Amino acid sequence: MNKTTNKIKLVLIIISILFSSMSLSARGEKQKATGAIDAKTFEKLMKAQELTEAGNHDEALAELDVLKNKGRISGYGKAQMWNFYAFIYASKEDYANAIRAYTEVIAIEETPEALALQAKYTIAQLNFQLEQFDLCINYMNEWLQSTVKATPTAHIMLAQAHYQLKDYDNALVNVDKAVTLETQAGRKVKENWLRLKSALYYDKGDYVNTAKTYEQLVQLYPKTNYLKQLAGMYGELGKDNRRLAVFDSIYLNGNLKKSGDILNLAYMYLGQDVPYKAAKIIEKGMNDKIIERNRKNVETLGNAWAQANQHDKAIPVLEEAAKLSDEGKLFARLAGVYFDAGDYQKSANAAKSAAEKGGLKNPGNNYLLMGMSYSNIKKHHKALQAFRLAKKTKSILRDARAWEKHTLREIKLIEDLEKSQFELEEKTRKTLESKENNKEV
Predict the structure, then answer these.
(1) In the Cβ-directed half-sphere of 254, how many Cα atoms lie within 13 Å?
(2) Is pLDDT at 22 greater than 70 in this prediction?
(3) Please, are residues 257 and 290 in contact by the beta-carbon 8 Å criterion?
(4) Tally: H helices and E strands in the chain
(5) What span, in angstroms and rounded, lies between the C-alpha atoms of 220 and 188?
(6) Which of 157-171, 238-252, 264-278, 326-340 has the least mean pLDDT?
(7) Cα–Cα 20 to 30 A to 139, which of 158, 203, 317, 336?
């Protein structure tokens, strides 16, 4: 950028400030004196600007120091000098000195209203950068009280500052004002504003409005992450059907890529008593190499098929899971599936393996199932032994006793039949022997 262009730019800046001051005066506000800038001051300010744009901040500050140290500058020129100081310090990211310089701008009586307002706004921004949130709020509120037209951005900064101070109510008030102003201007509400709003409601524990905000986010910015957050909110509110519907829509659109998310969806279907759908989801995840075929996941798949009464699918999967486990619970589960499928011998064998491996939460139930399986294949004495072990568990004592009595009756019936058969055979034998004896005689 050449010197002529720099001069024009600086003149335009000064003229725009002058006209801002005049327009404020025309609206009945207090008019402040606007002094002229002499040629030497103008040259120094222009030189400082050129050095700043070239990245020579220290040299730019030295030019301004010459003006300040001479003590001849005052009024409007002085305000511009401090404004340049502030600009240079801000460019250097020396925000503390930039704030001090802007404060000098405000303190000068001849500073135009527009420049003073801009200084307050910038001080608020710089204090936010320095995490001086109370000061940010104070200066921004002063700016809002003096400005003719509030901006959404100003309210968002206030909202962020209040949020940092955990003043969620005032933060929400300002977010809503920003959203209203943006909507009235016919513009699409910014994504990060709605994210801030959702965070505020969530931190307040207001899950209803958090969900409503995520619904708005999904409508304006349909992203998978927001759908997941919305599903989570539905879960917190106990709206499990909606939660499932949202997750299922993500899955159907092919946007569930992680094993944990897909398994989570399967568990939701299990929770809603739709085991067949859960099993299909897990099976596909395994076939697609997304879900690991480890013991836990295989067990979940097997249980889902079992709950869906798909025994032909459940049995091989649970057999696989049982081989991967050192505990007896999977054999106990497998015993139940075999029993439901009518394969009582395998049911008894699996129940026996479960008892031998141990680690069962309800060993009595396993013994009861073992006894029932043995009973169905007419191995009554083994069944009787299993029922007597099952009686040690109080919760199933009545059932175990009933099956024990039934088994004892079966054993007695068999013994009576065997005895009758034996007696019949003996009588027949004796009759035949008697006939043979009579023939001989």
Answers:
(1) 1
(2) no
(3) yes
(4) 22, 0
(5) 8
(6) 326-340
(7) 203
Higher pLDDT: 265 or 362? It is 265
Q: Is the pLDDT of residue 428 over 80?
A: no
Residue 335 lies in a domain: no
- Model pLDDT, residue 423: 58
Long-range contacts of 80-89 (CB under 8 A, 24+ apart): 80/14, 80/37, 80/45, 81/41, 81/45, 82/108, 83/115, 83/119, 84/45, 84/48, 84/49, 84/52, 84/60, 85/61, 86/119, 86/122, 87/52, 88/48, 88/52, 88/57, 88/60, 88/61, 88/64
In whole angstroms, how large is the CA radius of gyration of the chain?
43
DSSP of 355-385, one letter per residue? HHH---S-HHHHHHHHHHHHHHTT-HHHHHH
Collapsed DSSP state (helix, strand, coil) of residue 340: helix
* Alpha-carbon gap, residue 129 to 214, rounded angstroms: 28
pTM of the prediction?
Answer: 0.69
- Helices 329-340 and 363-376, interaxial angle, to 10°? 30
Domains contained in the chain, number: 1
Average pLDDT on 380-406 reads 88
Instruction: Tell me 71's DSSP state.
Output: -
Hey, CA dihedral for 127, 132, 133, 134, is it positive or negative? negative
pLDDT score of 35 more than 70: no
Helix-strand-coil split of the chain, %, nearest 5: 80, 0, 20
pLDDT greater than 50 at residue 6:
no
Burial class (CB in 10 A: 0-12, 13-18, 19+), 109: exposed
Classify residue 104: in a domain, yes or no. Answer: yes
Calculated CA dihedral for residues 198, 199, 202, 206, nearest 10 degrees: -50
At 226, the pLDDT band (50, 70, 90 cuts) reads: very high
Residue 257 belongs to some domain of the structure: no
Residue 84 located in a structural domain: yes
The pLDDT value given to residue 250: 94
Supply the range of the domain harboring residue 79.
1-111
CB contact set of 320 (below 8 Å; sequence gap of 6+): 298, 302
